Structure formats: C-alpha cells, structure tokens
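It is worth pausing here to work through a concrete case rather than discussing structure prediction in the abstract. The textbook approach is simple: state the sequence, then state the predicted structure, then interpret. We follow exactly that order.
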Amino acid sequence: QVQLVESGGGLVQPGGSLVLSCNASISVFRTRAMGWYRQAPGKQRELLATIAMDGTINSADSVKGRFTISRDNAKKMVYLQMTSLKPEDTAVYYCNFASPEYIKARGDYWGQGTQVTVSS
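Step two, the predicted structure:
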C-alpha cells in the first residue's frame, strides 16, 4: 500500500524560498529511490530530483543549483528545499518513487500534491 502526503507549498515572491515535505507511508521506502515531480497547468509532469537510498542525488537542469532533495529514512520523509524561486516554478509538486516505470507497476498512485505559486 502506498500513501504519499505532500505539504509546505504556498504563495512566494520571485527569489523566495520554500521547503516541501512528503510523508511517505510506503513499506519499501528504505529500499527505493524517491523523487520530486511537478506539473504546471497544461504541461506534462516533470521529474525534478531523485535521491537514492544511499543519498545519491540527481537533479534536472531546470532546478540544479536551486532545489535540493533530501530524505529521512527513519521518518519515511522526503524534502525539497527550493531557493531562488521563479514564476516558471509555479506548479503542483508531488513526491513519489524515482522511477516512473515503478510507479506505473504499482498502480500509478499519486498523492494530492502541494501547490507552489511564485508571483509578485
């Protein structure tokens, strides 16, 4: 069973920062890489950053140097620290497994996401 609860979104001015949290009630959490995704209106869902069980991180070019993913295996939490936010970062943000193929294999479950709006 998979339950993902994202939080921490909100309205922020350009150049501002936010920290998103994800409570991942997943039995396999400690054995799987996790990721943060976002979906802007009219656009496809985009994988932003992934973090492996050993802490290895990969980030998309669009957020590299601005967004940092982290995880707490004991608490089954995933975080996304976002800095230097831009209006084009406006989207609904989701956490999930790092592998889109694995997400589909487990029934394509997604949480409700958390809205981030960057605007002056």
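Step three, interpretation. Helices lie at 100-105. Residues 100-105 form the longest helix (6 residues).
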